[in-house]
Amino acid sequence: MIALTLCASLLACLHAAPEDALPRPTPAQLAWHDTEVGMFIHFAPNTWQDREYDNLSTPLNQINPVSLDTDQWAQVADDMGAAYVVFVAKHAGGFCWWPTSTTDYSVAHTPWKQGKGDVMADLARSYAAKGLKLGVYLSPQDIKHGAAVGGRCATPDAQAAYQAVFRAQLTELLSNYGTMFEVWFDGSLVFDVSDILRAHAPDAIVFQGPQANIRWVGNEDGVAPDPCWNGAKFDAKAWGTLTADDAIPGGDRWLPSECDARIRANWFWNTRNETTLKSVPDLVRMYEHSVGRGAVLLLNHTPDTTGRIPRADHERAREFGQAIASRFGAAITDTSGRGTVVEAMFSSPRTVGDVTIMEDITLGERVRAYRIETLSDGTWTPCATGTAIGHKRIHPITPVRCEGVRIVVTQSIGDPVIRRLAAHAAR
Length: 427
Hints:
single chain; about 425 residues; Jelly Rolls; 2 domains; six-stranded antiparallel beta sheet
């Protein structure tokens, strides 16, 4: 009897549906997908230097952002439609915007708030008040402490000393400011901090490093590839540096792409880049090519030396948020379904300009090829085709007056499950 039971179990495994082997997102990754848009904030001593990297030339007594207002930063994020923020608490120069015990190169040694200020604490309060999630960027590279990209130092003694500093900084950030939604290790990490993440941020989204559960898209333009699969093959040596180019349909891990991008030409404010502020059409196109390809858009803002995000940038963020809400906030029709054909019919003929589809990714990426069709005068006519859907796929189409839209799945692993099929009015 035991032998027969074991044999039956083995046969069941051998004949299991292939969709059972698909990688699937964790609950934390699902929540991250649904945010769709986040806000990056880059601010450091190089803001006072007109540089992208701190050359350590600015005396700390000159860093006094007298108008710094994290409530304003939170309002910019809210107006833009962002659901979370990633604040650069320490960039590559090593300056820390919280009163760390690890270095004197910090906000505690500036005249701002008489050395009693803590930008991380202010941010945590401001974003909680808006219902926004808080994330933090802690650069492994640290010029002040002699650490290169990844936190790599020149000698074993220097390596050990810096790792102690970095681990203490990470512990401070993850244990003193509430729940951390996302943690950024730009350039990856050459040493292990998994114990700190498990202890203080077990559900955090992690960018790069050995514990990464999202990946860099591979550019700083806010553009995901088409298709943008979420599957990846685990490799401990390269895991923290994979990009969207390493994506495969399937794989053994779920590793979605985050598209970090700049609203100006640079990551940091400087006296010369105001004219590089991106236009609303540019930002909407960026949204189409990131969120509209299943990724998450992390759009950067740059406070100036007063500590405020410039008025023009705030206004552009508001205009961008309004444009997205106007175009995609309401649909002509909205449905879901299971199977190779899912239809959404209208109550009367309408002119459609965009079609949004979402897959139920709790089951993995089952859809491998599909087409979108519109119904006019009793005839279904193809208007778009694709492969990966993932969290969301937006298809701008040539405006067409029709009575309905449908998705026809032509290739899938198992039964397709469509979370959403929506048609949007032409602009």
